[in-house]
Structures are given as structure tokens and as C-alpha cells.
Specification:
The complex is a heterodimer of chains A (240) and B (300). By secondary structure, chain A is α+β, with helices and mostly antiparallel strands. Chain A has 2 domains: 197 residues, Alpha-Beta Plaits, CATH 3.30.70.20; 34 residues, no CATH class. Chain A is built from 7 helices and 11 strands. In chain A, a hairpin with a 6-residue loop joins strand 8 and strand 9. Chain B has one domain: Formate dehydrogenase/DMSO reductase fold (Up-down Bundle). Chain B is built from 10 helices and 1 strand. The chains are: A alpha+beta (240), B mainly alpha (300).
């Protein structure tokens, strides 16, 4: 079973919105029709987006961190939005786990968006149907593209490489390795939706150095004049 | 959540229709000599008018009403789909019940029984649409279903009492007593839901929504300055004082005044109660705090 997903590295994201722009560009140009923009050049411009970058401030001065938080459909393995759909327009593909909306079946009742805890579905005010991230299903299988370009447009756009794409059910994939080795986590686990998309946490690079590494193992002759800790066991050289 | 008026009208109108049908059935069952066929047929017509108006209101909620028939397909998983099937089925039963009384066809009690089962099924479907959404803790409770049943019953029997005062005076007193009882029951369960919801803890936290373990997280930007579907659909835009002020208002209009008026002026009691139930339904939506709001605290 394949489950395609994105893994987003919050340690790398700089909040440039390139993924938002490229997502909008790709998905507004596709066969499914334009993503609506309302008042694009007026007051309060707004429109349909599949991906947004939000910014949060964590902590208080002086130990404050700015976290840029890209947010799109998490392609849950137990999606709350799919079983509630009365028409079957909302569905999860068996072959790759992508959650999609059939725009020709959607009646625009918005019930799916109520069931989603993450607020990642957006009702399109002109097409009058529910829309959402498709994981660029219309390009990741496109044989006319070179293989390295068969990725969601947000992933291709990210200048910092904060977005990884792959199969989270394949233990050797780049996404599974990242989740496993860099502390990947899911959003709102209490919702029981088991999101396929994961986030990698912010990290501070630190090299833990123990006292014995400085004073004994790495400096057996104590030539730096550091006080010798008599409680430490003898070095290999002293034993010989 | 932002209350959608189409849904407010749908749920209050069909609720009154279902409650009234059940009241009519019990009139025929318990007092067949006093419930004239013409009274019951006229009542069934009123039920159909209410449900028809509700059905029309529901279409205003849809982005593509011309595809509404598709909503009957996913009844295996979706309570909304089940409601879409149960509502026309109930209306068909009410129609058959009314026609049978009007034309004098026998077997009206059996038809009425089918109608009552369908009315109750429809109540459960409507209630479960809301109670089945796990992330909305204010709704995800059996009390939601109970309240849809009892509030619909109260307004429906109230309308039956008003209709009876005009069309079947010999039944009016009994119907008024039924309406009184149903309204008291509805007040008790709705009050229980109010108390429960006042003590609820939020479904999720900022920490869980972002996966960052820090007590102080403040939003600085939500990714758009001019609003989005997320700010339009999940925020009602009224002040907390307005929402709180609605509670005594709908308690007064849905329960207190109708209870005082049902014996003397049942039609006025119904009209006040219906207005109260619209306010109650508005509050029901506004009260529900969607966890997605955590991502939409500050514009920028």
C-alpha cells in the first residue's frame, strides 16, 4: 500500500511563500479550472488556495522563535472528511492514498470541511465546489515530464528544501527516513485522523561533550593544565 | 461555526413538521372518534408545507443544487445522505397518510405508523449529522440527537395544538397538554446540553495544532490578509456578549412564553416558539468552536 505524503521541515522553512505561489500557479492553470480570486486588486483580496504559510511566534523576548508553518491537506490515512460526504465526491484513492474531490460530483454542501479538524479544505466561491490540495496528482504521474520533475509544485518551488515528497509506507523512502531520524510528527493526533503528512520539528544543533571526553579520553596528558578529576577511572595509557 | 440560515430554516421547519405528524398520528390512535379525517388530512397537508419549505431552504445551502440527487448515494457512511433519503420518504408517507384520510381509504393507522417511524428516523439522521462530527465537541454527544427530537416534537405538537384549536376544538385541550409536556421535556434536555457545553474543554490546543511544546505561542500571520474560506465559514463575527445574550432570549421564547401561552393562545405560542427555536439553532451553530480556528487567530 502506497501512501504519498509531504514532510515539511519547520527547521528549514523560511516563510517565503514560494510554495503557496507555485501551488496557486500550477493548480489555477489545470484542467479542473481556475482557483478563484475575489477582489484581487481591491480591498480585502481573497481567494482559493490549497496551501498557505502561516507564521507563529513561540516564547517571549529574548528567547523568541519565529516558526513559519506551511499548511495544506494532510492526506489523512483515516480522513474525517471522506465518510461524511453525501455524494462520494470526496474520496481517498486506494492506489496512492491521495484524498481528492471530484468537482463534477460535489454539490457544495461544505459538510466535509466541517468534519476536517485542520481547516485545509476551501470552498471555491465561483466554482461552488469544495477544493483542496491534490498533491499535484496531475503532474506526479505525468510521463511527459522528466522523472525528477514529477513532484508536487510546492516541493519543486521550495528554495530551502523544506518540503519532502514520497511514500510514507515505504520504510526506505526519503520521507520515512526523515520522519524516523528527525523526529517527524503528526498534527492534532487527538483527532484520530492519522495524517500522512508529517512535520519535522525545529532543532538547535548541539554537540554534547562530557567532562571525561575533555579531561581524560581526548587529553590524556592534561597538557592544557586543566584540573585532573581524581574520581575518574584511569586512562588506558595510565593503566599500561 | 457560522450559522447558515438555510440550515436553520431547514432543521426548524422539518422538525416542526415531523413533530406535528407524530401528534396527528397519536390523535388518530388515542381518540379516533374525535379526530375527523378532514382534520387529519388538513394536518398532513400542513406537515407537507412545512417540510416542503424546509426542503426549499436546504437547496439554498448547496453550491450546486442541480446535483442534489447525488446526495442520496452515500447512505452507507454519511448521515447527511441518510437525511436526504429520509426526508422525501417521510414526506411521501405524510402525503399518503393525508390522501388516505381525505379519500377514506382504510389502513390509515398503518400508514401513520410508517410515517411516525420515518419521522423518528429523520430526527435521528438530522441530529446525527451534527453529533457525528467528532471535532466539534459541543455537538458530538447523544444530547444533540435528543434535542433535535424533543425540540422538533415541542414545536410540532405546539403547531398541532394551534391547528386543533381552529380545526378540532374537542382535541385542542389534549393537544395543548401534549405540547406543554413536550416543551417541558425539550427545555430540560436543552438545558442539560447548555450546562454540558459550558463546561467543555477545547478539542485541541495551539501546542497540538502546531506540534510545538511551548506554553506561549502567538500567531503573527495566517497567510492571507483579506480573509479566506476559513475565516468566513468558521467564525460568526458576533461578539461573545451577543452570543451569551442569546441564551436567555431563546430560553424565554422557546420554552417560557410558549408554556405560559399554550393553553390560551396556542397559535401565538407556536409563532413565538418557532422564533425562539431559530435563535436556539443560531446559537447551536455559533456555540460550536471548530479546532481549525486555532490556525486563524490573527490576520497579521
Amino acid at each position: 500500500m502506497t501512501q504519498l505524503a509531504l514532510v515539511i521541515d519547520l527547521n528549514v522553512c523560511v516563510g517565503c511563500h514560494a510554495c503557496v505561489t507555485n501551488c496557486k500557479q500550477w493548480n489555477t492553470s489545470g484542467a479542473a479550472g481556475a482557483l478563484t480570486d475575489c477582489n484581487p486588486y481591491e480591498q480585502n483580496p481573497n481567494g482559493t488556495f490549497f496551501n498557505r504559510v502561516q507564521t507563529f511566534e513561540v516564547g517571549g523576548f529574548p528567547s523568541t522563535e519565529t516558526v513559519h508553518f506551511p499548511k495544506s491537506c494532510l492526506h489523512c490515512e483515516d480522513p474525517a472528511c471522506v465518510p461524511v460526504c453525501p455524494t462520494g465526491a470526496s474520496y481517498k484513492r486506494k492506489e496512492d492514498g491521495i484524498v481528492l474531490v471530484d468537482y463534477d460530483k460535489c454539490i457544495g454542501c461544505k459538510y466535509c470541511s466541517w468534519a476536517c479538524p485542520y481547516g485545509v479544505r476551501e470552498f471555491d466561491e465561483q466554482r461552488k465546489v469544495m477544493t483542496k490540495c491534490t498533491l499535484c496528482v496531475d503532474r506526479i504521474y505525468d510521463q511527459s515530464l522528466p522523472e525528477e520533475r514529477r513532484k508536487p509544485s510546492c516541493v519543486l518551488a521550495c528554495p530551502a528544501g523544506a518540503r519532502l515528497f514520497g511514500d510514507v509506507h515505504d520504510p526506505d523512502s526519503v520521507v520515512s527516513t526523515a520522519i524516523r531520524e528527525r523526529g517527524g510528527y503528526q498534527l492534532m493526533p487527538e483527532a484520530g485522523t492519522n495524517p500522512a503528512n508529517h512535520y519535522l520539528p525545529r532543532r538547535k544543533t548541539a554537540i554534547p561533550v562530557r567532562a571525561d571526553e575533555l579531561y581524560r579520553a581526548d587529553n590524556p596528558h592534561k597538557i592544557d593544565g586543566a584540573p585532573f578529576d581524581t574520581s575518574l577511572p584511569p586512562t588506558t595509557e595510565e593503566l599500561n | 461555526m457560522r450559522p447558515a440560515f438555510s440550515v436553520l430554516f431547514l432543521t426548524t421547519l422539518i422538525g416542526a413538521g415531523q413533530g406535528m405528524f407524530i401528534a396527528l398520528f397519536f390523535c388518530e390512535l388515542l381518540a379516533p372518534e374525535r379526530a375527523s379525517p378532514i382534520f387529519l388530512a388538513g394536518g398532513a397537508a400542513l406537515v407537507l408545507v412545512l417540510c416542503g419549505l424546509g426542503l426549499i431552504a436546504s437547496f439554498f445551502h448547496l453550491g450546486h443544487p442541480e446535483r442534489a440527487w447525488r446526495a442520496a448515494t452515500m447512505w452507507r457512511t454519511s448521515w447527511l445522505s441518510r437525511e436526504v433519503i429520509a426526508l422525501p420518504a417521510f414526506m411521501a408517507a405524510a402525503f399518503a397518510y393525508g390522501v388516505a384520510h381525505y379519500t377514506g381509504v382504510p389502513g390509515t393507522l398503518a400508514l401513520g405508523m410508517i410515517g411516525v417511524v420515518l419521522a423518528l428516523t429523520l430526527f435521528v439522521c438530522t441530529g446525527m449529522i451534527y453529533a457525528a462530527i467528532r471535532v466539534l465537541k459541543e455537538w458530538a454527544h447523544p444530547l444533540t440527537v435528543v434535542n433535535f427530537i424533543l425540540l422538533g416534537m415541542a414545536s410540532g405538537v405546539m403547531l398541532a395544538a394551534a391547528y386543533g384549536a381552529f380545526a378540532a376544538p374537542e382535541l385542542a385541550a389534549a393537544l395543548a397538554r401534549m405540547a406543554f409536556l413536550a416543551t417541558v421535556l425539550a427545555a430540560v434536555t436543552r438545558g442539560a446540553a447548555l450546562i454540558r457545553n459550558a463546561r467543555l474543554s477545547p478539542f485541541s490546543t495551539m501546542q497540538s495544532a502546531l506540534g510545538i511544546r511551548h506554553p506561549r505561542i502567538v500567531q503573527k500571520s495566517q497567510g492571507a490578509m483579506g480573509g479566506s474560506y476559513n475565516t468566513r465559514e468558521y467564525f460568526h463575527g458576533k461578539s461573545p456578549e451577543f452570543v451569551r445574550g442569546l441564551i436567555p432570549a431563546f430560553i424565554l421564547a422557546s420554552f417560557v412564553l410558549p408554556l405560559a401561552l399554550v393553553a390560551s393562545l396556542p397559535l401565538l405560542a407556536f409563532l413565538i416558539q418557532y422564533g425562539g427555536l431559530l435563535a436556539e439553532r443560531w446559537f447551536f451553530f455559533a456555540e460550536a468552536r471548530h479546532p481549525q480556528n486555532l490556525y486563524y487567530q490573527t490576520v497579521g
